[in-house]
Design a protein that fits this description.
mainly alpha; 102 residues; 4 helices
Length: 102
């Protein structure tokens, strides 16, 4: 049985696609750094070190958009792209886990 087919990505400019990719990379690293999640300090340290580089690439993507005259972020379209790329699950790792009552 084949896995369910994902909805298609919305039409994005190359710069918007780059923004989405860089944003998700940063989110993934922030999820690894999240001190409310179990893990070891070395893994979090490595993620924090990588985050510096990824944040610079995210900044570059936004700079390119701005220089090309793409001065607005189209939230609905970008949110659809994030959902197709599993952004909700990935971003959930950045938040506090549910309180277990302990």
């Amino acid at each position: 049985m084949l896995p369910p087919e994902l909805p298609p990505l919305p039409a994005l400019t190359r710069a918007e696609g780059e923004l989405i990719d860089r944003y998700l990379e940063a989110i993934d690293l922030l999820g690894r750094i999240n001190p409310a999640r179990d893990g070891d300090t070395y893994r979090a340290l490595r993620a924090a070190q990588a985050l510096v580089h990824k944040a610079a690439r995210l900044c570059d993507a936004l700079t390119v958009m701005h220089q090309r005259g793409e001065t607005e972020l189209h939230g609905d379209t970008l949110a659809r792209a994030l959902r197709v790329l599993d952004g909700e699950r990935r971003a959930a790792r950045v938040t506090l886990p549910p309180d277990c009552g302990g």
